[in-house]
Amino acid sequence: MGRSWTWRLVLIVVVVIASLWSIYPTIKLHTLSEEEKARLRLEESTKLEKLEANAIKLGLDLQGGTHLVLEADLSNVPSGQGDKAVESAIRVIRNRVDQFGVTEPIIQRAGGNRIIIELPGLRDISRAKKLIGKTALLEFKLLKSPDELGLVLDRIDRFLAQTDTTAEEEEATELFQEVDKSRPFRSLLTRYGDYVAVPIDNANKVKAILAKPEVQKLIPSDAQFLWSQEAKGPAERRVYLLYYVKSQPEMTGAMVADARANIGTGEYEGQPIVELSTTSEGVRLFSRVT
Hints:
- The chain is an alpha+beta fold.
- It folds into four domains: 2-54; 60-135, 2-Layer Sandwich (Alpha-Beta Plaits); 146-246, no CATH class; 251-289, no CATH class.
- The chain is built from eleven helices and eleven strands.
- It has helices at 2-31, 34-43, 45-54, 60-63, 82-97, 125-133, 146-164, 170-175, 203-211, 213-216, 280-289, and strands at 65-71, 106-110, 114-120, 139-140, 190-192, 195-199, 223-227, 239-246, 251-252, 256-263, 272-278.
- The strands form four sheets. A four-stranded antiparallel beta sheet has the order 5-6-8-7.
- Strand 2 and strand 3 form a beta hairpin.
- Helix 1 (2-31) crosses helix 3 (45-54) and helix 2 (34-43) crosses helix 3.
- The longest helix is centred in the first third of the chain and has 30 residues, at 2-31.
């Protein structure tokens, strides 16, 4: 009888410990303040992603969040193309929602032209509406020259190197204390073919640096940095491309008469491509800028 109760007690203790261990990520994640989450996302994104992956997924009813119902305007869509237009809108919305870092969002079609969006944990409704509901704009921008890129990288490096030596900028010191102090910004970059790239692990650091008001002032008003939509390269060396482009577009989507998805041939054989047909004005402008 005594041994039986001993084993039961041991089993109960083991189950309790295992249960506490399994729910620890959930408790830890939901006790973090928004400021702490923002700091982790900036400085230790891998740690935060691991915490979110291991936490129990709470739905909208348990942790709150944002519930939106959108209705697609099909008044200008050709007959028979409504379903395709709604599915395309869902893909666009899903890509935009990914920017929030929301765990397991729900994006689904309801009826003919309505789309239901549930974002657990996201309570900034105005920001969600602004990002999800904004009109997409196709723009064609030309890359700045390598010399112009080199000049702005030098400016940023000099600024960060000076900042790193002042005691009052403790946050900046922590941001690039592990990189080459003489070239703190370039040290976070790499090459991908002919392009400047940013390793995934450095992406948040680079974004934080470029977002600084002092750094923004170092970038000419006629230029800007843009990121590739998806990471490139093999799994162990994934990178985002960082483009230094003219801020003024050479062409916009207003000059595109038609666009079709297709499968490439030749150099792009087997790859998905987009074929564009431009207006007569677009043809002249495209010929001039290319």
